Amino acid sequence: MDNNWITLKGYNKMADNTFPNIMAILTGYNESSAFNKCDPTILNMLDYCPMIWNDFRKFGYVTAFAEDESWISTFNCNKKGFNHQPTDYYFRPYFLKTESFRIVWKDDTKYCTGPEPAGERLLNVIKEFGVAFLERPSFGFFWTNSFSHNSLNAASGMDDKIKQFFEDITNAGILENSIVIFLSDHGLRCGEFRETTMGWLEERLPFIYIWIPEKFQKKFPAEFTNIKRKVDKLTSPFDLYMTLQHLLVLSDFNYVMKPSSGCSNCKSLFIETGSERSCEDAGIAQHWCTCADFSPVDGEVQKIVNKASYYFTEQINGIIHNNREGEKCAAYSFHKIVKTGVIKSYKDEKYLLLAIETKPKAFFETTLAYHKHENEDEYFEIKGGISRTDRYAPHSQCTQDTILKKYCHCKLNNTNI
């Protein structure tokens, strides 16, 4: 995008999928805190979660939340969702009703619901909300899944409609008084492209564009300068959480910013920060961190790769075994190594990037710390998470558990190995 939109080229996701990355923006929680304090699998828990839109509402903002593709939506996919209306305008009932129209499926999503794409319906909701409250403070959080969730190329089919959307909100005067953040949560998490180096990066570096109106630039020149300086720096969803809070402070409300519990060092994009920053500083675990050098596995590391692969497989089986529904899933055995590499952090720490294939057939990837003391066996530690890089939905239908689904190969499907 051009026309003076700010692009944060170093915006790095902080966890695997949609829910934790969005919760980091809306609550400042990391993944474990989001599940512990706002457990979406328990009825009513999300209703008492400290979403940032509640803070805006306290100061007179009209709030809205809308998301298309209801079956894979952020708070309802294998989750209980909101039991009470979370915002002043809540569009889930509307999108559920539109899905009763004639549906055109594309890439396993409801691309069209009735005479128009579901994503276009969402764009229309955004425009109408912006126009309706042009003269009142408003906060809207809008999310689309329908035209980009399962395909690298499908999003291009909406290019003209997205272009028209931005022209429409410009002509309507919405951009004159609104800060707009246009972003994604993550890239494509599985498939052939994901297996490439570019795919590894694309998954971890979702796009983000920020519009700052001219009125804000003139009133807060220092803050505007600071956010422009972040273009080539490492940023994370936790920074966005702090930025949203900062907007309430800049609006002259008696608001006290709360540190992000998931990243105590993270700061608003409008605040000046140092020139150096690590993924740890930004609340990003090593497995998702893109600030690293890659090199092939050398002779010394090659000696431990097989042992690391068996360790990795045991860790996956441990996750399954410790889950209350784990008995529904087959145990994995290590089959072969798919990819290896050495990752060197800015602190000169070395990690092993390891991708394996298992039996039953599944593909997993992780980042391992490895240590070996004299006269002792190697010691491994998973650093930040596990990626499942093949499409697992057909093999995990026996469970609706949010965590287990990524790892499970249902015993009933065990003939397909």
UniProtKB/TrEMBL annotation:
Which Pfam family, any one of them, does this sequence belong to?
Answer: DUF229
Q: Which GO terms describe its cellular component?
A: extracellular space
Family matches, as InterPro entries = Alkaline_phosphatase_core_sf (IPR017850), DUF229 (IPR004245)
User: Which named protein is this?
Assistant: DUF229 and/or Sulfatase domain containing protein
- Name the species this protein comes from: Asbolus verrucosus
